[in-house]
Amino acid sequence: MDARTAEERQREIVRVARATGAVDVNALAADLGVAKETVRRDLRALEDHGLVRRTHGGAYPVESAGFETTLAFRATSHVPEKRRIAAAAATLLGDAETVFVDEGYTPQLIAEALPRDRLLTVVTASLPVAGALAAADNVSVLLLGGRVRAGTLATVDHWTTKMLAGFVVDLAYLGANGITREHGLTTPDPAVGEVKAQAVRAARRVVFTGVHTKFGAVSFCRFAQVGEVETIVTSTALPASEAHRYSLMGPQVLRV
Questions:
Q1: So what's the pLDDT on residue 220?
Q2: What was the pLDDT predicted at 237?
Q3: Between 29 and which of 36, 95, 120, 242 could a Cys-Cys bridge form, CB atoms 3.0 to 4.6 Å apart?
Q4: Residue 1 pLDDT
Q5: Measured distance CA(148)–CA(135) in Å, rounded
Q6: What is the pLDDT of residue 77?
Q7: Cα separations (Å) of 152 from 34, 46, 118, 149, 170?
Q8: Residue of 216, 122, 196, 115 lying closest to 152 (CA atoms)
């Protein structure tokens, strides 16, 4: 096959991966009318370009400046894993009285898991997080104003960061689109990155929560270094050896 055909094939693979959340080597080979080894070669090339990450028998798309999954999609992906992570993260509250809860599905689950039997002030840019907590007894919710992003239903831009800059919070629960030891915590959108970076600056303690697929992925905008995080909460699908490498940079790493 010539290079142009390979490029077209790889574009189609990325399109399918982004539309469905994952691709399978056998199905792609059948759909594209090529050998499985050709598909594997395409996936290797796409992984080298940071567009997908390969798994056993397939691949899933990497979020980037040009592609980000919606909150609705995240609510269907790795849900049992995210629920375990959220429950474990909520137990790290300690004596915190003021908490920042990030946008995203896992932070939304953390918000739902926070205790209701004590006074708590929650600062968030996420409309779903604010909605989940608004009627809770003992919880005071401060929703940061700004432009609402359709895919995640969270506020961004200078209104959001300026309001957040006026706070000092005991604990920030943060998500990310990717985390690596070299590049830290990253996200595709600069406006989102600014809000997350401001939350890191505002917080006395930072907890990062993310499923195992976030590890090794790099997005466009760095908002924190690994060493700025007190605790990382992920699942046992992240190898213990890899968790140990992150722990050497400062954070406690919990695999649940």
A1: 86
A2: 93
A3: 36
A4: 44
A5: 22
A6: 67
A7: 37, 26, 29, 6, 25
A8: 196
Instruction: Mark the ranges of the chain whose per-residue pLDDT is less than 50.
Output: 1-3
Cα(253)–Cα(256) distance, rounded to whole angstroms? Answer: 10
Q: How do beta strands 98-101 and 169-174 pair? A: parallel
Q: Indicate the pTM of the whole model.
A: 0.79
What per-residue string of b and e applies to 82-95 under the rule 16 or more CB within 10 Å gives b?
bebbbebbbebbee
Both tokens assigned to 80: 């049992």
Distance CA 156, CA 146 (A): 5
Reference 184, options 225, 228, 243, 234; nearest CA is 225
Structure tokens at 57: 């028998």
In degrees and rounded to multiples of 5, residue 245 shows phi and psi of -60, -40
Q: Is the dihedral of CA 142, 148, 154, 158 positive or negative?
A: negative
Q: Which of 151, 169, 148, 172 is nearest to 159 (CA)?
A: 148
Q: How far is CA 19 from CA 14, 61, 67, 128, 218, in A?
A: 8, 9, 11, 23, 20
Tokens of 94: 């300690």
User: What SS3 class is residue 192?
Assistant: helix
Q: Residue 33 in 3-state DSSP?
A: coil
- pLDDT (tens digit per residue) in 184-229: 999 989 999 999 999 999 999 999 999 998 998 888 899 999 999 9
- The single-letter DSSP state of residue 96 is -
> Can you tell me the distance from the alpha carbon of 26 to that of 24, in angstroms, rounded to the nearest whole number?
6
Kindly report the number of other CB atoms within 10 A of residue 142's CB atom: 15
Q: Which two tokens stand for residue 203?
A: 């917080």
